[in-house]
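Would you mind writing out the residues of a protein together with its fold in token form for me to study?
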Amino acid sequence: MVLVVAGLGYGYFRYQWSKVVSRPCTTCVAAANGAPYNVLLIGSDSRAGETAAEAQQFGSAASTAGQRSDTIKIIRVDPSTGTASSLSIPRDTYVTLSDMAANSGLSSDNKINAAFGNGPDALIQTIQNTFGIPISHYIVINFFGLQDAVNALGGISMNIPYPIRDHNQGTGVNESGLDITTTGCQVLSGAEALALSRSRYFEYLKGGEWYQDPSSDIGRITRQNLIIAAALDKAKSTFNPLQLNSLLTSSVHDFSKDNGLSATDLFSLAERYHAFSGSQLQAYTLPTVGEQTSGGSDVEVVQPEEASALIAQFLGGPFGTIVTPPLDAYGNALALTPPPTTTTVAPAPTTTTKASSKAATTTTAPASDIPSFDPTAC
């Protein structure tokens, strides 16, 4: 009976997986059997296909046309050791775009999130050419992917040290919908988790006064990693094949993938990693500093020495050939050089502030450097 139930559960899982939109990935690099590989997780800001209620919450496709990669995370999976880590690339990182259509209308020197306007292949090619990081698979998640996944898990538990909100001081608008007044350990709904993950104007109330996180997208990346850790903890504590099916059923229309990522791959990973906790996930952020281009655009400029060490540490060895190095604010190429030792020397966690038109933060976002105002898993 156990075998029959398991077989039926897996069959239903494959049926749900077959509903996921899959496309060929011409730029993906196949990984050797059993070797570590990298999956690009793309958070898309596309409004295509929204309902009227969704358009009211996130803005319509008419007001925000096209698509950009709101979130860029590379998940490195090592099946042989059962370990995983993530590397976040700030969406405003200044690079040379690769594989762009001639009629795209985009400048080749641009923020990396613009590459997704030409699809996943263009973003993957840009990452590989700029940082030498091979990508084997990709998953694109829309606004509601995180919300539906968290709801399928029954919410995630996070400790909120202060009342928090999203508040654009320039417009006075709460753009992500984040508004949590209760403090302490509590269960966040999918909508609350989504609002927290999207907040770029994060504020917290302390001593009767609202304070804003000056790091903007860098701080948002840190909070996204904390949400992922909380979701992993919840999945670990409640894992069973039926819940895996429920999770996929609820979010099957919220994401797309390359056609090389099979149901068997995902199911085997879920079984291998079902005991994996959020605290075990090493989360890194590409070291950048805020600058302004001659055209007045706010961008994140890669810090070459720190980035070289971090990428090598993330990959556990030297990175690949770099075709189009990242750019400084003037459009000059920045050389990324593999460090002499790539497997034993970890980059020192740093936080650097540099004068510019906006607050600028450089960080590898280790757990010990989580700001005291950020929500954490509990």
Residues 2-154+217-377 form a domain with the Aminopeptidase fold (CATH 3.40.630.190).
